[in-house]
Amino acid sequence: MNDSQPFDIRGALIFPGLLDREAQARLVEQIRAVVAAAPFFRPVTPAGRPLSVRMTSAGSHGWVSDRSGYRYERRHPEGMEWPPIPSLALEVWERAVANARAPECCLVNWYDAEARMGLHQDRDEVDFTQPVVSISLGDDARFRVGNLSRGGKTESIVLRSGDVVVLGGGARLVHHGVDRIYPGTGTLLGKPGRINLTLRVVT
Ligand SMILES: O=C(O)CCC(=O)C(=O)O
Ligand SMILES: [Fe+2]
């Protein structure tokens, strides 16, 4: 991993290039093992709309969404337990938020060329004193940060492979989203697309 001085965008802390290329490649291998054990699925909003992002999880809890709502579950929708959180993701957590509790969920998001994620808060967890740590791999993405309440001014930055974002402290519940990815800008995955990991304390 690299030394990386964080900068602040509307309270979100960005660590540019925290993962060097070798760490990124090792983490991708660990994610492939997660996906082999717990395949990607496409969650549906409570209103019945499929998300454009495909997801799976690692850890004691995984994030799911369907007609019954957004929530964490102990099992994948197909019934298996979630695999363990990749060791390299745990190392990133230690580097970025050393004093936090241990993460219980590593949500794995897969963005194909058309996928995006609208502005939202991460608020399905119980303890908002605990941060969320996000790791970007593969293609560049335009990441947007807004406010604690809906609406108002927003700012965006491009996240690149190896960048890490921390939503913590007073910015734990800030609205954020991904406007788009830039297909083919990354060479890590061998095909267009972006992986994002978010590590969360759930209980
Ligand atoms: O893909 C990203 O950079 C953000 C993902 C995110 O906000 C989420 O999974 O809740
Ligand atoms: Fe989020």
TrEMBL record:
Q: Which organism is it from?
A: Jannaschia aquimarina
Q: Which GO MF term does the entry hold, naming one?
A: ferrous iron binding
Q: Which InterPro entries does this UniProt record tie to the protein? A: Alkb (IPR004574), AlkB-like (IPR027450), AlkB-like_sf (IPR037151), Oxoglu/Fe-dep_dioxygenase_dom (IPR005123)
Q: Which residues bind substrate?
A: 63, 70-72, 124, 150
GO CC, alphabetical? cytoplasm
Q: Kindly give the Pfam families that the UniProt entry links to this protein.
A: 2OG-FeII_Oxy_2
What is the name of the protein in this document? AlkB protein
Membrane-spanning ranges? none
* Keyword field: Dioxygenase, Iron, Metal-binding, Oxidoreductase
Name any Gene Ontology BP term: oxidative RNA demethylation
Q: According to its UniProt record, which cofactors does this protein need?
A: Fe(2+)
Fe2OG dioxygenase domain location, by residue? 102-203
Q: Which residues are recorded as binding 2-oxoglutarate?
A: 109-111, 194-200
Q: Which residues bind Fe cation?
A: 120, 122, 176
- What gene is this protein a product of? alkB
PROSITE patterns named in the record: FE2OG_OXY
| Tagged with keyword Methyltransferase | no
Q: What is its EC number?
A: 1.14.11.33
Q: How is the cofactor bound?
A: Binds 1 Fe(2+) ion per subunit.
